[in-house]
Amino acid sequence: SLRCSVALEQYGASSTACTATARDAAPNSLATRNLKVRGVQGWTQRVVRKNALRRTTSENLRGVKLVKGLVCRNAAGEGEDTNTTSPSHAPHPLEVPPPMIVSTEPGTWAHDTMSRRIRETILSKVFTDNDLNSDQEAALKALDLEMQQAGTTLLRDINSDGGPDIATWQEIMAPYVGKATWLEAPWLTAEFYFYRRVVEAMKYFELREDPFRKQKDLGLKSADAAVENLCRQLAGMTSGLLADGTMLRLKSEAAEQSRAIEDEVIREIIELFVLTALWGNRMDLSLWPEDGTASNRAGDAFSSALAAGEKYLIHDDLKRVSQVLFEARLEGGRRVDIVVDNAGFELVCDLCLADVAIITGAASVVKLHLKGHPTFVSDAMGTDVMATVESVSNMFGAVGTVGKRWKEHIETGRWELSEHMYWAQPTPFWDMPADVSDDLKKSCIVFLKGDANYRRLLGDSPWPLTKPFDEVAGYFPTRLCALRTLKAELGCGMEAGEIERARADDADWLTSGQWGVCQFTEMNCESVEDGDNCDVPQ
């Protein structure tokens, strides 16, 4: 195992609270389970449906290639169309996915990203934002030349650079090295591969210097006002909660009201901060009330958030998600996981959700899953969480108190920071290594943040947009809530009417980042082994 470099000791925390394990374990074969429902009859019906689906899927998988028409080249470098090259990952356990998205089609977001945007707007900043030595500069220039010729340059292996993930990357790239260009390889693979090439060029595993640090720092600094406003709102809405061990109750003025009102306040606070984690900096914090008790503050803010985001929320499973957390609270708190996406203000929103999960008693522990190395510019690592917590704790008044509470969560182990190389790799989530999937099974619910993570959930395949979320993502090892703003030309689980509404309003609705989904599945919770954290009917 690889200890991450986050200095938790500065907060008095045990170093075991932040452990990264290299992804070199064999992929885990996930059992296909089914939707938990209340009542044995409904549960049995779904088990029958699951078994039928499993038989059909097994028959359909025979001979299927997941990447169609990949251009491979012979020893002389001559191209020929072939269907013989497929990704090195395992097949989807429930269905046969459509072919993965590639970047060869001009006019698509994938093509623009890999042929232009990734070089002009991302790689260029790596040059200008870092004090490069001669080796770094030469390696980056070589990468820049490849990106200039993305349509003709064949991919190569990641060079051995001290990273613990080399063997895994060799496996990932085996179908494409010397056979596919940057545009011909699956888009998701090529994009993650690009960032791993930046890590190689910058000698990250030797020097431990984040090539995107300047952009991350600027992002957090520019969001100071929004961070202060959000944390002030969090402090106000939760000021009516008092800790009693791991369980919390409203203060006497609210406790005198009926339990139903108390429960509704807790639900609204939970739902508000799930929405906040979804929309991030799209939330209009100016609409949130400054004054009032915990109950009307949460209610008014929730109403404002719903009104602001309702137009752009294409699928909404918020009530199902809050019910899981509310029931966990009644049980004394369960483990809740967040697969984090970006640093900056979005990370602050995620930490607010993690805080609310703890202080409402829904979670006994929140585990934050973070990248094992810098990637996608702003993706969060353990050091980014620590820097953000430090920044908030240094603010004045109630906001600083929130930051100090976050420090305490880390010190006491209520928040666990876990870096893993797997979160910085392009393999689909149905092909998780055993250590990752076995760990996630211990969670009551996993919040999956961001577009890149969602693309991995779908195998970066363009499923029919109306395909039920359960049928695409139901393989996930525990309950899952996907919080995503749409930034890629794929999706699932959307109603046809909502799709038409979004398309009529915004021609670029799939990539503009204006539209979002809150999608939930518990397909894998109909039966569990000892140590798993899902409930089943007795």
Written description of the protein model:
The protein has 538 residues and is α/β, with parallel strands linked by helices. 44% of the residues lie in helices and 11% in strands. The protein is built from 19 helices and 13 strands. The protein has helices spanning 40-60, 109-129, 134-148, 166-173, 187-201, 204-207, 213-222, 224-238, 252-255, 259-279, 294-309, 318-330, 345-359, 382-393, 397-412, 434-440, 451-457, 469-473, 496-505, and strands spanning 2-3, 19-20, 71-73, 79-81, 241-244, 247-250, 313-316, 334-339, 363-371, 415-420, 445-449, 480-485, 516-521. The strands form four sheets. The chain has a seven-stranded mixed beta sheet with strand order 7-13-12-11-8-9-10. A two-stranded antiparallel ribbon has the order 1-2. The protein has a two-stranded antiparallel ribbon with strand order 3-4. Helix 2 packs antiparallel against helix 3, helix 8 crosses helix 15 and helix 10 packs across helix 11. The longest helix has 21 residues, at 40-60. It is globular, with a radius of gyration of 23 Å. Residues 1-85, 243-252, 284-295 and 527-531 have low confidence and may be disordered.
Q: How widely separated are the two ends?
A: 39 Å
Could you tell me the mean pLDDT?
Answer: 79
How many helical stretches? 19
**What fraction, in percent, of the residue positions are helical?**
40-55%
| Proportion of residues in β-strands | 5-15%
Main features:
single chain; 538 residues; alpha/beta; 7-stranded mixed β-sheet; two-stranded antiparallel ribbon; 13 strands; 44% helix; disordered N terminus
